[in-house]
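INTERNAL AUDIT FORM
Audit reference: QA-55
Scope: verify that the stored structure record matches its stored sequence.
Auditor: D.O.
Record contents follow.
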Amino acid sequence: MRAGARALLLGGGLLSGAVLLTASGGASDTHPPDAALLAEGRALYEAHCASCHGAQLEGQPDWRRPLPSGRLPAPPHDACGHTWHHPDRILFRIVREGTAAIVGGGYESDMPGFGGILSDAEIEAVLAYIKSTWPERERAHQENLGP
């Protein structure tokens, strides 16, 4: 698969290790995250993610069209985006390591890794918050992707 296609598949970046968010507080009808975890995730999202991905998780305009730099704009993390198309382990690694590290093949991204800024638990909280905003259909699809 071409690097550009892989980048579009991964979405130009959000989110990183094999962590099952549903086992640790992710959004699920059978294991709903607690209010404190979601509040922490929302605060961390606002502090570290919203400047690129939008206060309402809406992403940057024309997020599927490369910028003049050749990099993709930040994708949305709401139901209109594709974040819910990826399993937890990939989302976690994208946040921790950055999109370019996950896509590989010389792909460049403006999505940095947050592993030196956020703890694994904080990354899980951000992802739990994002997942909590999705409608049931998208949450169920994403949960069925497996680890």
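Auditor finding: record pair retrieved intact. Residues 1-29 have pLDDT under 50 and may be disordered.
Action required: none
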